[in-house]
Amino acid sequence: MNNPPATPARRVVITGLGAVTPCGNSAPETWAALIAGRSGLGRITRFDPAGCTAQIAGEVKNFDPARALPAVLHPRGPAAEPLAQSMTQKDVKKFGRFTHLGAAAAVEAYADSGLDAHRAALDSDRMGVNLGVGLGGLPEMEAMHDTWKAGGYRKISPFFIIQIAPNLLAGQVSLLLDFRGPNMSVASACATSGHSIGEAAAAIARGDVDVMIAGGAESTVTPLAIGAFAQMRALSTRNDAPEQASRPYDKDRDGFVLAEGSVVFVLEEYEQAVKRGARIYAELRGYGASADAYHLSSLAPGAEGSARAMRAALARSGLVPADIDYVSAHATSTPGGDGEEATAIATVFAENKASLSVSGVKSMTGHLLGGAGAMGLFAGVLAIRDGIVPPTINLTNVDPECAATGLNFTPNVAVKRTVHAALANSFGFGGTNASLVVSRV
Known about the structure:
Helix content: 25-40%
Strand order of the largest sheet: 7-6-8-9-1-10-16-15-11-12
Shape: globular
Distance between the termini: 39 Å
Order of helices and strands: EHEEEEHHEHHHEHEHEHEHEHEHHEHEEE
Largest sheet: 10 strands, mixed
Strand content: 15-25%
CATH class of the largest domain: Alpha Beta
């Protein structure tokens, strides 16, 4: 039997950005902080961390989940009820904090894309959502457990499951924006949003949908999460200097800084975006995913699995290593992980590492866990748009192992340079890896 000819993959572009992070409550605020080398890290304020070895985090500050939108949206058409805020006060009580953050970023990305003005001509059945969450509603779990212990079963909120279920963010966004296509949530630890974006792009490329809202969110700055990571000795204990605590590639790094936040993209089929006159930030050209199959919480030697993800993303993109100008690294600031990833990057980009820029924005944002992959891609996309590579701050004494790779880690100050194409990495517990390649259109 003859097989039908393969359908050429459709092109996927990024037409909208949204972000709520420790560095800013919008995409422009966050980017301004990154290129200025400004840290969003500080002492924990959401609970008293006294007694814990790690007392610092990247918290989202001055954020109102029920804030009014800059402009009213009409995702269901002008005759239907408009969308004036991403969440009402009633919604705030109903949902967990990761949904507060993620919905705000998603609505910002949707507004930024300009899709709202064209909804009458677009099919909502061909618009979907893939928003990942690594741990879900941990703050709400901890609080409700205390409520139950103190008051019994009758005190448990009927909204508790809605507050904690990871896929409720994607569900709420689809409801807000009337996206009726695929609706799902990926959970793959710190690679979560990298996989979410890659899988969303694949759905567009194969013709299932024309638009996807994709990215990730996390909010786990809680006693249990901080305490557990601290017990693993994974967190920095530089409590007296929070803004200097996250220091990828530095000889004196002592662990990552846990953070919360959300970064979301609008992905769109290229021809549709051009037809409606959309502003295109970049083309999402390649996605690679792999497993280390080595250890549940450590990278394989030389980050071999990570290198396979990078090579797979490059192969799918149609680009070669020499085409990449910037790698937005996972770079968590852990003693082991940074060197292993640097080794993998130097191996994959051996032919052009002398001209390659590498940086780790977690030095400013902290580690967003489920939002980390999207945060890394955000840096790559805007580096392409603006011709600026954000720095790795706090890099004052490069670790000899990292220095031996011969890579330029963009220490402390942003660098102006043309970026035609960028690659963003994210890796997670369980040995899971994601790499994404974006380029100018």
